[in-house]
Design brief:
The chain has a single domain, classed as Metallo-dependent phosphatases (Purple Acid Phosphatase, chain A, domain 2), CATH 3.60.21.10. The protein has 4 helices and 13 strands. The strands form 3 sheets. Strands 5-6-9-10-12-11 form a 6-stranded mixed β-sheet, covered by helices on one side. Helix 1 packs parallel to helix 2 and helix 3 packs parallel to helix 4. It is globular.
């Protein structure tokens, strides 16, 4: 499966590339958040592929936007192309008016999703906005990852975790890394092609 993972910044170069790409290049577009509904619709339409997404911390208006199609993965497990995808939205709650959770709230959400995954055949791809704590995050509170994501990766061992939130221009940020659980971690900032 070829996935077009996107997050955080709307990229005109991606739009131009998709306008000239061969049809069927991507099997799925996955948004890791902080992108407008109109942009998601445009990318999925140009890619001629289904869209799956989670909300980022700034995506408070998704429910009101008529352009938003696709499958919201938050707290759910969905199958695409024979692979099981699950998602968890938002970032660490650092101020009012965002899609945010504290560590305890996310831990409860992770336990619920982990139990569902364990009872129904696991997951292949975990889609989040924030990274796992200590694996692609930053020390400042708005960009710290969730501790519970580490436990989820150790518990259900997805092959891939896609996230956003930490912009690659914030410093020396790795696009890809491997979690101690063996899960491949990919920061989807901007856009990134992933084969699975």
């Amino acid at each position: 499966m070829r996935i077009l993972a996107i997050a955080d910044v709307e990229d005109d170069l991606l739009i131009a590339r998709l306008e000239h790409a061969e049809r069927g290049r991507y099997d799925l577009v996955v948004s890791c958040g902080d992108l407008s509904a109109g942009y998601l619709d445009c990318v999925a339409s140009l890619a001629n592929a289904p869209l799956a997404y989670v909300r980022g911390n700034h995506d408070v208006r998704y429910e009101d936007d008529p352009h938003l199609g696709g499958t919201n993965l938050d707290g759910r497990i969905e199958e695409f192309g024979g692979l099981r995808f699950a998602g968890l939205e938002g970032s660490l709650d650092y101020r009012e008016g965002i899609v945010g959770y504290n560590q305890a709230q996310m831990r409860r959400r992770v336990v619920a999703l982990g139990l569902r995954a364990a009872l129904t055949g696991g997951i292949d791809v975990l889609v989040t906005h924030a990274p796992a704590r200590g694996h692609g995050d930053l020390p400042d509170p708005p960009h710290q990852g969730f501790d519970a994501f580490n436990g989820l990766l150790d518990w259900v061992h997805p092959r891939l975790m896609l996230h956003g939130h930490v912009h690659l221009n914030y410093g020396v940020i790795e696009r890809e890394r491997t979690h101690p659980s063996g899960t491949r971690l990919v920061n989807a900032y901007g856009w990134h092609e992933v084969e699975l």
